[in-house]
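User: I'm curious whether this sequence folds into something compact or stays loose and floppy. Could you predict its structure so I can see for myself?
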Amino acid sequence: MPRLEVFNIEINGIKTKYAACGKGKNLVMMPAWRMDIDRSEELMKYLGKRFRVYFLNVPGYGNRNHLKKNYTVEDYSRFIFAWIKKLALEKFSILGISMGGPIAYNLLARIDRKKIDKIILMAPWYSSGCINFSPKLLKVGGKLIKIVSTKRLTKVGNKIFDSERILLGYMRLITPRENFRDRENMVRYVKNFRTFCFTSTMYSLYTTLNYDLGKKTRRYPYETIFIMSKNDPQINYDKTLRGYRRLFSNVKEFPLEHNFHAPRIWITKELIDRYFGKTFIEALQHI
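Assistant: Here's the prediction. I'll summarize afterward.
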């Protein structure tokens, strides 16, 4: 199994960390919602069997550094671009997972096309028009999320993120029961919340839910790998695929069959192997 290396770095005056793993072609991962180095470790090691994988802790993720503002999708793209310039990679592919889909799309406009190899999209967010639940519920939920992401609630929110009991109860409501078969890893998962800034995390969710790639018109020619479950309970497979085909001219799809949104499976190595293994092997042959 490839070894994960972690490095300290300062970007635009913010001290953070990035990880690198494996050998081979360069693959730069975009963050999904509430995804940091610790939460992406097993996936990085899996991909590191074939690639040199890079991942950055963006502001508020993996650290609780004081931030002057909350970050939007565009802000994350700018921050990651500054990091990529420091890496000075000659050529690389980009992996966008969930929230990382629109971050990756925004990033492409800033990068020299000669440096881009492939685009890999895993259950990527496209727009609220692709959700599998009531738009009214999304609207109400969005307003609530915006309220709790105000800076004055940071201390209270961080206390919630520090509570193992509250978070385990929350996870029982939103994740498949099989995630609790390995309680040790689930406890590790909820403890990971302690490294996140509550308001930054919630605002990134708010800005993603309100982000609409359907309003974008620029189309890219890169070979694009689309990996997503046809049974994703959160976002619609066909609508999302159709949306990304509008933005990328060369899309190859690799459907999965599990019944939850992609980020839920990073909790344990067993779930990564079980749900992504075969599909990833097949998809990676095209990268």
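Summary: The chain has one domain: 4-284. The chain is about 40% helix and 20% strand.
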